[in-house]
Prior knowledge:
Keywords: ATP-binding, Cell projection, Cilium, Coiled coil, Cytoplasm, Cytoskeleton, Microtubule, Motor protein, Nucleotide-binding. Residues 20-356 form the Kinesin motor domain. One of its GO terms (molecular function) is ATP binding. Plus end-directed microtubule-dependent motor protein that regulates the length of motile cilia by mediating depolymerization of microtubules at ciliary tips. With 623 residues, the chain is α+β, with helices and mostly antiparallel strands. The protein has two domains: 90-115 and 140-331 and 348-367, 3-Layer(aba) Sandwich (Kinesin); 378-476 and 487-622, no CATH class. It contains 15 helices and 19 strands. The protein has helices spanning 32-36, 63-67, 86-93, 98-103, 119-123, 132-147, 201-214, 266-269, 273-298, 312-316, 340-353, 374-394, 405-478, 491-538, 546-622; strands at residues 17-20, 22-27, 43-45, 50-54, 71-75, 78-80, 107-113, 151-163, 166-169, 177-182, 188-191, 196-198, 217-218, 226-227, 230-241, 247-259, 326-333, 357-360, 364-368. Strand 9 (166-169) and strand 10 (177-182) form a beta hairpin. Helix 6 packs antiparallel against helix 7 (201-214), helix 13 (405-478) packs antiparallel against helix 14 (491-538) and helix 13 (405-478) packs parallel to helix 15. The longest helix has 77 residues, at 546-622. Residues 1-14, 398-402 and 479-484 have low confidence and may be disordered. Adenosine-5'-triphosphate is lined by residues 28-29, 113, 115-121, 223, 225-227, 261-262, 332.
Amino acid sequence: MRDVSRSQSVKENVDTKEHQLTVALRVRPINEAELADEAKIIVHRIDQKMVVLMDPVNDPNNILRANRSREKMYMFDVAFDSKATQEDVYISTTKELIDGVIAGYNATVFAYGATGAGKTYTMLGTDSDPGIYVRTLNDLFKGIEASSDRKIYQVSMSYLEIYNEMIRDLLNPTIGFLDLREDAKGGIQIAGITEFSTSNADEIMLLLLKGNRERTQEPTGANSASSRSHAVLQVTVRQRSRVHAIHDELHFGRLFLIDLAGSERAAQTQNRGKRMMEGAHINRSLLALGNCINALSDRGGRANYINYRDSKLTRLLKDSLGGNSRTVMIAHISPASTSFEESRNTLTYADRAKHVKNRVKKNQMNVTYHITQYTDIIADLRREIHRLRARLQEQNMVEPHQAGIQSKSLYGKLMHSFHEQMQLQKHVMELNSASLAAHLNISQQHLAISNFEQEDLDKMAKRHAEQMKEGNAATDGSGQDSDIPIEEPSSPELSDLAMAREELTALSVEQNKLATLKMELEQKLTDAKSRASQLKESLPLQLHSVDQHQILSLLCKVHELEMENMTLQSRTSLRDGLFHQHHQVLRRCQKHCALCCQLINSQRKVILGMWHYAKYISVVLYV
Ligand SMILES: Nc1ncnc2c1ncn2[C@@H]1O[C@H](COP(=O)(O)OP(=O)(O)OP(=O)(O)O)[C@@H](O)[C@H]1O
């Protein structure tokens, strides 16, 4: 996928829907060890949703038990017995989440249950009978493939385990323990986790196998290959339309597939030392998970405080529990009487989870591309047109312009109209910049004229002052007043001013001409556009294949973008030109202003001189 460096406006999708946590129950077959222990089957599936758990102890001396019914019924969204296949479990729990993830929704599937109850079997499965991981990833890539004609996808995965409250990257275990961080929007991120981008299911499968080899597994009294950690496979699907538009939508769906470590009783597992410590951590995080589920299922008005912070597991599952995710819990139990307590606990836990409600919304980002990216977008569209044309040729189908004599002529007219519009638009833009230049010349000319007029006035004032001085000197000598004629400005300066005025008139005539020409061109452009839209309406009726229609709509899109691009570029350069010219005018005004200040000062001096002189005369006359 091309890097989308862009000016983007990210808009939250507010279209949220309530989603109740789906709870499934799987009862595994009784195993040889349990049979050897003379265990009886105490779990019975009544129908697709209901199971019954029988209390194996029939002790008449135990008053408490005797008074209680020995049977307890539980209802779930779906219940599987020991005969259910991996395919059955996958189809009824996970398969329908996949399209949502591709479309940009979050989803979580987690396996819960006591140690040895069958969680890893459901999630990972065996080579010959793979579990949910493999089936989900296969279908995910199939789904992506099916819509890759219209969309471009990027799939990445990470795989981690939470072992003794520490997070380990299963795809890159050497980097040490990782931290959970909360981003500004409250989303949970794992700092430094390796995210592998993959393009096919096989590659992801190899990564999964590699990760599983790293997972902490040890034999315990209850399971010869007990998972001592919670394993979290995270798959992110980012999706965007194959064809860029100026306003694009990006979607990203996140899928969590989680194989929890099993809850266990130290007595049952006979764990000691390290295994016992692991068990304590496992139980602690599962207890935190149970507390969250309890609080979430209790809250009527969604006001309850949910303490996700008690364990790394609950922090990581924050969105999956009560947040933005379609979530499925698959609870696992053994049917054996020897596991009665564990099974009852799991069933109670799962029963509570049925009441958890999430609010799901599509993860969507609205992107508005910057003008500088128009060229890229247009190139993208052209590539897409090329691809579709090549495909049409491959299929030995006719292109739009070969789809029949009538459509050929319509198609030709449409392309001709596009070309004509581009040319007209180009001329309009040239006229725009010519009329801007004329406008600026006119304002400069106005400035020059006012400069000339100012200079004339200055010169006149100077001459007047000099003549006054001379006149006064004469009066001084003869004692007679004399009328001082004010000289008119000399003719060469006058001709400069006249020439500037002539130039201004010529520029104004030119500007009017340009405006008339622009109006004519704009009218022609409007006519060409309406002809093209008539053609666009009639052409699809002549086209028969989806690809032909797609090519036509892409060609129209390219044309619109090219026109828009041209307008935007012209506007930008006009704005730059205007800015530059304004800057120059401003500088000239500043100069003019400085000149005015200078003149005012010199006038002040002249007035002061005259005032001193008048004072002197009055003193002389008085004496
Ligand atoms: N549905 C099933 N059909 C056949 N075998 C099963 C089934 N479920 C579990 N098993 C077998 O039972 C044993 C224990 O299962 P598994 O390892 O999946 O349990 P677990 O719940 O993951 O245990 P732990 O929490 O200790 O890791 C395995 O040998 C597994 O192959």
